[in-house]
Amino acid sequence: MNIIVCLKQVPDTETQIKIAADGKGIVTDDIKWVMNPYDEFGVEEALKLKEKFGGEVTVVGLGPKRVTESIRTALAMGADKGVLVVDDALQGSDSLGVAKALAAAIKDMPHDLIFAGQRAVDEDLGVVGAFLAEFLGIPHVALAVKVEVAEDGKSAKVHRPVEGQTLVVETPFPALITTQKGLNEPRYASLPGIMKAKKKPLAEKSLADLGLDPAGFGESARKLKIVKLTPPPERKAGKIVEGETPAEKAAALAKLLRDEAKVI
Amino acid sequence: MAQGVWTVAEQREGEIRKITYEVVSEGRRLADALGQSLTVVLLGNGIKDKAAALAQYGADKVLVAEDQRLETYTTDAYTAVVAQLVKAEEPAMLLMGASVQGKDLSSRVAARLDVAVAQDCTAFAVEDGNLVATRPIYAGKAYAQVTFEQSWPQMATARPNVMSVNEPDASRTAEVVDAQFQLDDGELKTKVVEAIKDASGKIDLTEADKIVSGGRGMKGPENYAILEELAQVIGASVGASRSAVDAGWRSHTDQVGQTGKVVSPNLYIACGISGAIQHLAGMGTSKVIVAINKDPDAPIFQKADYGVVGDLFDVVPALTEEIKKMI
Ligand SMILES: Cc1cc2nc3c(=O)[nH]c(=O)nc-3n(C[C@H](O)[C@H](O)[C@H](O)COP(=O)(O)OP(=O)(O)OC[C@H]3O[C@@H](n4cnc5c(N)ncnc54)[C@H](O)[C@@H]3O)c2cc1C
């Protein structure tokens, strides 16, 4: 089975965000970059399926050169090879641009199954997986917590929680599945894994390599335009509920919730 | 020229979901700001009788797409129909709920139309006839105002529980129109083979009006009984921090936070939760936050409207009793 995992590099979740002077982006100087947490689930699931069905796992990243580190991490976990779509003209692209470039990179690679994170924890848009599937003309099933691939390796039943229930969706391959928490526990890269990863193939593709016109990408081609970024609205300092005993505190809180906050 | 605001209704088993009324109400406000009409697209099977309810919340027109294959949501079928209807009538704006279904459908429709979509927005405005959407990014550590460039319809989804719902007006009526569309079986690749209902029957966290959440301070799965009891009394759903989920005390569908669910209830009661940045990411847009924690320096107190410093095993049951007395 040939499996492709899409990977994005994002600021570590502990990162404090500083809004850049132009108010349209963030200061990226001191950021620690990590693999998008949702993409780790995709890597893990692909490796598990490879263990069962054989085949090859290819990790496809897009972004600046530093994304190589995250691809190497996935290779160290056990993926077979990596591809980085990297081009100055991609800088500032919106999700449509990113998905179009990924589609161009992936369309000629053999693939039964593609994994993508359900969203990236930077822009939190959660659209690239569906966009990519649409551009490749294949079905997608979002928010998987369980993937049961049929014995013949040609279809899967995917469990996806929607509000109040879990749907089991059957999809033929090729298909794209977006991953979320609950699907699996991503493994850590072992030391031998890290050593081996250094020798695994990692190709770079520019827009020209993919036969794409740079004019269709980058800041100027954005259809979703950022007007400005602002810090989140401040929550005003709250009240500490006073009382001698837990019972007194509870009574005071109950009153506040009813009379002041009016939520009870 | 693109004209009119559209929203897509969400139904399950023939019942309109609450998020639909939130989006229709917001759609009404935007349509009024533009001086244009509001159309609600309603997809399903034998669903037309629900059009009247949509009118009461502000729809001028309800475009009903009925087909057996639209009875239950599938990405393939709904995308095919919505994209066709949009192409035929060219609305200026297209809004959906940022529910699991709405995010799924809006993404795929956007790609089919080659337009942008702003997901999970917490506010909308109209400026110079264009939609300006506000959306939390970096897990709520910043807010982005976004707009659209060469992208019609302007598409966005609204985070559940954030937009206010209009008072239904029983005297309002809407024009109800049968939508014209074609659905080709060859396009329908995925199939819902089973729908497993949550045994608890509780309201999903993303839609809950109140949430009582427990973290590592709960010390074990059995102790969630005291949260369940409080939840029962105030009509809340029970959530959890990642620590509690990773410890196996609660299901991962209960996790609130950056890698869990983003919730916006009117009341969020965090019990034995420290308030790590990744947890705050999931509940920071709650209207009223209460923290119960024995550590006075826990970061959660910085975000809480009401804080109780104390042992949750004493405070929570006492709170439950107090509220029982009140109501
Ligand atoms: C990539 C990434 C993603 C993450 N995603 C999430 C996420 O989605 N959601 C999430 O929640 N976390 C997430 N985390 C984890 C997060 O960083 C914290 O580790 C987690 O939120 C801590 O959970 P907690 O508050 O329950 O536990 P702790 O931090 O251990 O806090 C327990 C609290 O309970 C209090 N306490 C203990 N006993 C009592 C008592 N008897 N009475 C009152 N108070 C008591 C303690 O004072 C303490 O403040 C993520 C982390 C990473 C790195």
Describe the structure.
The complex is a heterodimer of chains A (264) and B (327). With 264 residues, chain A is of the alpha/beta class. Chain A is built from 6 helices and 14 strands. Chain A has helices at residues 37-53, 67-77, 95-106, 128-136, 191-197, 246-260, and strands at 2-7, 9-11, 33-35, 56-62, 81-85, 113-117, 140-144, 146-149, 155-162, 165-172, 175-179, 202-205, 224-230, 239-240. In chain A, α2 packs across α5 and α3 (95-106) crosses α4. The model of chain A has no long low-confidence stretch (mean pLDDT 97). Chain B is α/β, with parallel strands linked by helices and 327 residues long. Chain B has helices spanning 18-34, 51-56, 75-89, 100-113, 224-234, 242-246, 277-283, 300-303, 312-326; strands spanning 5-8, 11-12, 15-16, 38-44, 61-66, 93-97, 117-121, 123-127, 130-137, 142-148, 154-158, 175-178, 191-197, 210-214, 237-240, 267-271, 288-293, 306-309. A 7-stranded parallel sheet of chain B has the order 7-11-6-1-4-5-12, with helices on both faces. Chain B has a 5-stranded parallel sheet with strand order 15-14-16-17-18. In chain B, α5 (224-234) packs parallel to α9. In chain B, 58% of the residues are buried. The model of chain B has no long low-confidence stretch (mean pLDDT 97). The chains are: A alpha/beta (264), B alpha/beta (327). At the A-B interface, α3, α4, β7, β9 and β10 of A face α4, β7, β9, β10 and β13 of B. Bound molecules: flavin-adenine dinucleotide.
